[in-house]
Design brief:
Oligomer: single chain
Largest sheet: 6 strands, parallel
Shape: globular
Number of helices: 9
Structural class: alpha/beta
Length: 222
Amino acid sequence: MLTHRPSIQAVIFDLDGTLVDSEPIHRDAWRDVLAPFGFELTDEWFEGWIGCPEPHLGRVLEEEYRLPISAAESVRRKQARFRELASERSFIVPGAREAVAAFAETGCRLAVCTSCSRSIAEISLKASGLAEAFQVVLTLEDVARPKPDPEPYLRVAEMLGVAPRTSLVFEDSVSGVKAAEAAGMEVLAVGPLDRFLACNKYRNFSSLKAAADFARVEYFHR
C-alpha cells in the first residue's frame, strides 16, 4: 500500500485523452456531423483543438469557417453522435483503473476536471467503470471560464477542501497543463512531446502509466 507525503492531498485527472481514449470518438463524431457541409476534418486540424470546449469550437466553425449551421446545433448533433459511437467502443486508457486505485489507496482525495459537458463526462466515466471513483467531477457547466483559465482547477481544489499547491494533476492537453500550472498545482503532462512545447514548464510522459509510476516515486514514497 502506498503512503504519501503531506504535500500532496489530492490527485486530479483530466478526462478525455487522460483517463479515457475518447479523443478519436470526439474526432469521428465531429467528422460525421461536419461532412455533409463539405468540411474535411483532418487529424492534424483536430489535434489543434484538443481540450477546447465544444461551444467555443462550434462558434469557430460557424463564425470563422462560415458553416451553415449554428454553433448550438452543431454541438447538439456532435454530442448525439458521440453517444452513439461511445456505446459501440471500449475506450478506457490502459492502466487508468490501476492508477486511480493506487492513488485512492494513499488516502488522497480524487477528482476529475474536464472541459466536456456533464452528460458526455458521465457517459465516459460509466463506460470506463470509473463513475464511482471520484469525490468530485467538475465539467464545463460548473465554471464561467474554462481551461486554460485556472478557474476549473481552483474550483476543484475548493470543492475537495485542499490547497491548490497540494494537488497533483494529470493532463493531456496544452490548455489543461496551462490551467493547472496557473492554479499553482503540480502537473504531469501525458501525450506526445511536441504537443507541449508551448508550455513554459512541464514533465511529459508518453502514457498515463508512465506518469503514474513516476508520481508514485516522486510524490508518494517517503
